[in-house]
Design brief:
Distance between the termini of chain B: 12 Å
Oligomer: heterodimer
Distance between the termini of chain A: 61 Å
Shape of chain A: globular
Radius of gyration of chain A: 27 Å
Number of helices of chain A: 20
Strand content of chain B: under 5%
Structural class of chain B: mainly alpha
Largest sheet of chain B: none
Number of strands of chain B: 0
Amino acid sequence: MCAHSLCMVLIALWAIFGLAACQHSAVQTETAFRCSGSWFIPPSFHGNAWSQGGDGTHLHFVYEPLFLYQAADRRYLPQLGTAYSISADRRQLTVKLRPTARWHDDTPFRSIDVKSSFLIYWLQGWGGALERIDTPDEQTVVFVWQRPFNPVEERQMLGQRIQAPAHLFSKWADTAEKLLARSPRRRLGQEPTSAQQKAFEQLLLDKNEQLQLAYAFRPEKPIGTNAYQVSQITASEMVLKRYPRSWHTAVKVPEVRILRGSTNDVMWAYLLGGDVDASHAATPPDVAEQMRKLNPHLKQLNLPDYLNFGYVLNLRQAPFKQLAFRQALAHLIDRDRLRQIASYYSLTSDDRHLPLMAHDAQDWLSPALENTLQHYPHDLQKAEKLLNEAGFKRNAEQNWLSPDGTPLQFEIAVIAGYSDWILASESLASQLTRFGIPAQVRTYDSALYHQLIRNGEFQMAAAFGLDYKVYTQPAFSMDRLFARNGFLSKAAGLPERLPGPAGRAIDLQKSVETLMDNADPQVYRPALNDLLWLANQQLHFLAIYEKRIGVFVQEGERIRNWPAADDPVWSLTAQGLDVTYAYLLSSGRLEPVNREARL
Amino acid sequence: MSPRLRKWTSALITILAATLISFVLIRAMPGDFLDLRANELVTTQGLPYATAYKIASSQYNYDPNLPLWQQFVSYFGGLLHGNLGTSMTLRIPVSSVLLQALPWTLFLNFLALLLSFSVGTTLGLLLAWKRRSRVLSGLMNGFAVLSQAIPDFLIGLLLLVFFGVRLRWFPLRGAYDISYTPGFNLPFMFSVLQHAILPAMAYTLSTVGGWMLAMRASATQVLNEEYLLVAQAKGLKSKRIFGRYLARNAIMPPVTQLAIAFASMISGSIFVEWMFAYPGIGYFFGYALGNRDFTLLQGILLVSTLTMVVANLLADAVYSWIDPRVKT
């Protein structure tokens, strides 16, 4: 009986396997661009891009901004906008819109759509000094500000996605406009009275109420203006079809398939099998080499990610509050080793720990400043010397003791699930332990991690340092590193003022504001120099590597004409890789291999 | 109190206790998401902390200042009316999430358990029956140890690479082919089965060894019983002894484990579901944990508890059916 039932099970298995195999091989026909991504799976998925459930990779293919900023040649690529102008006092930005653009439900795209989108952004907290948005005609939109808008705000007006069609969102956008009119005018340097503060807080509560109502809107599918519209959604796959009345007439690929991204190893399997045309799963060099060997269609491009990785130190706690200790730490870390282990294709940060990207560092460093900067190369003897001079000693086990005799030992905080951060931190912990400072890595889930960092309840934590994503120059990085509420400055516990070059006190917040609020290099360069000098001297953030994303693209299997790695179009990745894919498809640069499938 | 009533009462108490404990534990999780959001608002909008906290609280539709017992009473009152609440972050009824995701998880687990239990116990029985064959014993033991030692997500990956990528026999992801219309139609149902095979095999291969070893231990014990000797002495055919005497008596301990295995597979399905992008409860469980969506998490844990309790009751019923001497 036993043998009989075993036979039955085996026959059943064979039948299932065999039939399934026949069936599966019959379904591989479609020609589409395939990439990996994420979205909320049904039933949580909906078409409101503003709220949870509507977010996902598809947004970049469905919506578009007025312009895309190509950082490599500092050029705006027209999308929904065709031209823009800025008034002499920088209080008005006028954008001319594309008359042929349409929403996916065939409603013509008009200036009120831009207005409603930015009013929802305003409800979310953007544009604190925005006065109003005018729409003199259907193809013109004018942003009017209470004060001159800064370069970051300019970039945001031109580069944020237009994702609130007025015919769907007017209910909330109209109320937002009324609230905007109520918005108090704030004068620089003038503290608000208690009545003004109260009115301001009430306004924010009202804004939040409207926002919650807008979030509750749940259309079935998103309605955008970009080249593709959502056609089908399951948990594992999302199919986008070309919108036939799109203004993107050059599109050659009729369909985009987004496959749910999973672990890195699963993504490697997809790449090996030629199941995706582009993927940026973190890949060690040996695996990358093997994949290229097994799938000759794969090309690897190492692109800048406009971020660097490193460690923020908590200056509130001993021994990190001692500058000599931080300098010793900078000398003892073998940053190149960490980079090789955690993110092979990235660039080891230079030994001055500046929040600058390698490709443009020279643009921001004056020769005078360069001469004053310190270098912290990997040098264990130098680290030992610095510690000894600062009163640290080794005990009988050769472990270090602080000047008051307390044994030194660290915990390195990392976000759970960030595999490259964990690898780097494990390697750092073993470097420190070998040097005589026992260290261990502790992982925290994302919510807890950010709370600990913000509250300063850590010793040394892995974090991103420079951030060129929002604004491709150092201003935003300096905001993170030095502003009163900057992510890293708050974590490190920096004071309001620090002694700068020649002992001059530098007001950190003021310097950051000067940098953020001015487009004129004559005005912002001195502030930038001060902050760069401080980053180099204070070492509250130790830069390890400038991140590169290893992107695998599959050339000539389904899709062809991928641009070379040095093509300026890849600098769109500052806004996300999916933005670049969407642009390459909508502009017709990528085309299907199968000629019959072309449009 | 009759044994049956006692069993039902104990099941009810288990559900109540699990609901209460999970309710308290979830809220005791470290990481105050409202504080995090409030701090974001303080930073980005220059709000006083109290106002920012109020806004954050309304965004999550959660008032942490309400005493815990009041929160529980409100939640439990909803439960009594069949209302599992609304997801704090997704803003949809928890029941709609569970209704859509749970059937996939149950189907996959049922298929996997059916396969691993039937193959594992059959092989275990065979192993005990042929216990003098060193080759068979060595092979089976080796397989059992290997299958126990390799985690399901690693087996899943190997299956994915071999059957999905290399041989292209099975789809790599999802629950069904997007080109079919979901419903009671043959192409769709066949596609569902086809998509379930790799994830089900990942579970099966990682658990089949356990069933094999459990069944072998149980059957070896039964083989030493005198009634088996009597049956042989009476000259009964080995087929009859194997099926009626050995298998039927040896299967009882694994049946008890079956219930526990079923319930624990539901909560342990995250990795395999994630790997195969399967639309089950695993995705939502991970999401709810990461986003501190208390109501969604509570709903999923409640379902897991209910599954465990129902599976135990079913195991008891099956147990008394297999062995009529055991009365519930």
